[in-house]
Amino acid sequence: MSDAPASPDGSPVLRMEAVRKTFGDSVVLRDVDLEVAPHTVTALIGASGSGKSTLLRCANLLEDIDDGAIWLDGEEITDPRTDPDAVRRRIGVVFQAYNLFPHMTVLENITLAPRRVHGVARAEAEEHARGLLERLGLGGKAGAYPDRLSGGQQQRVAIVRALAVRPRLLLFDEITAALDPELVGEVLDVVRDLKGDGMTMVLATHEMGFAREVADQVCFLDGGVVLEHGTPEQVFGDPRQERTRRFLRRIVEAGRL
Amino acid sequence: MTLVKEQSEPEGADDKGGTEPAGDGYVPSPRRLERERHRRARTRRATAIAAASTLVTGVVLYLVVVSAPGWQRTKETFFDGQYAREAFPKVLEGLWLNVRLLLVCGAAVLVLGMLIAVARTLRGPVFFPLRVLAAAYTDFFRGLPLIINLMIVVLGVPALRLQGVTVDPVLLGGTALTLTYSAYVAEVFRAGIESVHPSQRAAARSLGLSNRQALRYVVLPQAVRRQVPPLLNDLVSLQKDTGLVSIGGAIDAVRAADIIAGRSLNYTPYIVAGLVFVALTIPMTRFTDWVTARMDRQRAQGGTT
Ligand SMILES: Nc1ncnc2c1ncn2[C@@H]1O[C@H](COP(=O)(O)OP(=O)(O)OP(=O)(O)O)[C@@H](O)[C@H]1O
Ligand SMILES: [Mg+2]
């Protein structure tokens, strides 16, 4: 739980090697390799069902992988002896469906983990939370319950909740998918801001324009395989694989790039 | 009427977040005034019709009952004013025992039910025996007729003449009620726990909360809130069933009525006791309805699932 980089030499914050994940008979991730350098943004793109969410869930140990290994700051977290709670404390996750706790106010949602998991005093946790809310334009909403907020506001609260534990790595799973275009802008501004702060992020997204603009690295997933990865210019501008080209062509036709 | 006040409050101001400034010089149009006049007239008419229809129904019912054959005898056996006056204070005195039983058993049932429900949701191999025991407990006591449970505990246990074990019918009856109702309530809590979407637990876990913390701070509060209506239902049920402790001879409202009825061979005291129970449950039932309706409304307002 620190804002400071733990790996000044630029060694990856997150590394996946030959990760394989199956659900019953279906192979959802196959031989996935991924490296996320500190202070960079990695965008996972690909069709629905290509395994983006599953990849993020594996990185957060919400799913057990079948084979391969995952490292967080050089420590192998897929070792069965690691404490998954300790790993999750260092990773912030924002889900597509917000998953705010409906019985708690915005402030309680945000301070739950800092207080109960990290042992931060209530006053301090609330002050930090209010500061973050202010920054994300939610200053007046601390006492509101989630069902009184708009979708974009809920999503930003979810982001604040993930940030409140000062995570080493943020995982965003299609955080704009449920929002109308105006709110999408709101939330993407936040991500841009976080990038400016030097936060390390991995985001699954269907917003190709945004991925192109903000990402340092783009990974194209297809059928559970990382078919292509590189800088946005490379993946969007000069894709090597025919499959990637077809995917991007369809996106362009749909007017989303 | 209150038109002046309505003027200053644009419709739907509460959910628009007050975007429209009050006092923007809005004057209700004649169309709106005409509409409101029409609505008021319609309400008055509906009230009048309801009153007339109720009166007619009441009179018809009365005539049917009174002219029925055997009404005279029924009235003497079940609705005798003399016996009612005699039984009422005794029944009320007995009812105090029922109320105390309800309070104590109700509290015990909530605690025990919660423990059993949580035991059933525990994961991990260490808890396997606990899970099995909790499941067996609920299966057994939900299936066992309450009256048999009561007979075994209230009548059977004293027959054992165990040292240090009470023979007090109230304590034993309360124990039997608690045993059975804990099983019901445990199932209600378990259903509540399972109704909380797994994504809530996932969100809690991904914030670093342990399984236990996720249960305590995220799952259980939502589960309990959702299950308030069925829990109140079970409490209403328990309230009535406290009358069953009378089989062991404890002088509750039912037994008090029983004593007088047995002496006089008139059944009015039972009616009195019955009505007293009904009177006691009505507020509870109304309260349950109110809570349920309120929660349904909250959920309908786009509350999270
Ligand atoms: N718990 C599960 N059990 C079985 N199959 C699953 C499970 N979770 C995901 N899958 C399958 O894994 C595949 C990848 O799913 P995933 O959610 O990772 O896709 P995605 O790339 O995130 O798609 P989308 O863009 O629609 O969110 C899908 O075929 C899905 O059916
Ligand atoms: Mg997904």
TrEMBL record, chain A:
Gene3D superfamilies named among the record's database cross-references: P-loop containing nucleotide triphosphate hydrolases (3.40.50.300)
Subcellular location: Cell membrane
Pfam families xref list: ABC_tran
Domain ABC transporter: 14-248
Record SMART domains: AAA
Sorted UniProt keywords: Amino-acid transport, ATP-binding, Cell membrane, Membrane, Nucleotide-binding, Transport
UniProt-recorded name of the protein: Amino acid ABC transporter ATP-binding protein
Family under the similarity heading: Belongs to the ABC transporter superfamily.
UniProt GO molecular function: ATP binding
Membrane topology (UniProt): Peripheral membrane protein
SUPFAM superfamilies recorded: P-loop containing nucleoside triphosphate hydrolases
Automatic annotation (TrEMBL), chain B:
TM region(s), chain numbering: 46-65, 99-119, 140-160, 267-287
Domain (ABC transmembrane type-1) ranges: 95-288
Region Disordered: start-end pairs: 1-39
Compartment(s) of residence: Cell membrane
One of the Pfam families matching this protein, by short name: BPD_transp_1
Topology relative to the membrane: Multi-pass membrane protein
Keyword Transport appears in the UniProt entry: yes
Domain of life: Bacteria
Main location: membrane
Keywords in alphabetical order: Amino-acid transport, Cell membrane, Membrane, Transmembrane, Transmembrane helix, Transport
Family: Belongs to the binding-protein-dependent transport system permease family. HisMQ subfamily.
PANTHER family xref list: GLUTAMINE TRANSPORT SYSTEM PERMEASE PROTEIN GLNP (PTHR30614:SF20), MEMBRANE COMPONENT OF AMINO ACID ABC TRANSPORTER (PTHR30614)
UniProt protein name: Amino acid ABC transporter permease
Organism: Streptomyces galilaeus
